[in-house]
Amino acid sequence: MNRVPRETGLDVVYDGLCRFCERSLATVQRIARRPLLRLHDANDHGTIKAKFPMLADADTSNAMFVVTPRGEVFRGFFAYRRIMWESPRLYPLLPLFYAPGAGLIGPLIYAWVARHRRHFGCSLDGVAQCSVASDRVGRLDWAKGIAGALGALLLAATLAPVAQNWSPAPRDNFPFSYYPMFSAKRSDTYHVSYIVGLDAHGQRHQISHYFAGNGGFNQTRRQIDKLIRNDRATTLCQAIAGAIAREAGPPYTEVATVQIVTGAFRFADYFRANKAPLAERVRASCPVARGQWAERGSR
Prior knowledge:
The protein is an alpha+beta fold. It has two domains: 152 residues, no CATH class; 107 residues, no CATH class. It is built from eleven helices and eight strands. The termini are far apart. The C terminus is likely disordered.
């Protein structure tokens, strides 16, 4: 591992007598599938002090340290987080280290693991005798420690967005959300924009949201709302009218006019099967010019 070029790898100062520490760093190397780290035993105080004068006063017996080629120093949880940036194969683990609350919870979990690191595997200092049975127990404790730490990080990341409910300016995020679609206070009425088709007799026909854009219903609805806010409802209406003119099947062959409409609905009435809007506002209205498309198709 120490064959890593100095300008590309990271120097890691850790407890060389800790088998759990060795295994965790070896696991990182295996995932990355290439040498990333130059390992240095923190118990060799003279060598560490000579090679890394910036760590002269560091508590290397209580935490792992990472030193970058530029001389930047990272300790404990943040040292592991810095290592994750060294290989694209480690990037999937980054959300655990940058999840909401990870910067607060992560160091606490790391401190607990560091205090008990000798219990997660046999010590290599000659004090503890590592029998086959004790080695198995050590591996089990090591696996439990890792699973517990990852579980605690995920739990903290999942619960942290709940605090947004009490924020004066809440911010939603993905994939960790406080689910404002369920927790936000709603009024009795709701406004939504949609597409209406009218035939020659004024009869209304439902126009699918697929004519307005790609994606699901909610995504397309947001696109329609954005175009309306940007005074581009007429442009959208004309594009949909052109698409309707090229349709050969019912009910679109009967549609003579396309409208972009914003309707107001009362939740209580709508979910009692009364889906008629309380009021409607026509944002744009466009005729369907089928003769134009038929003439182009015959050319």
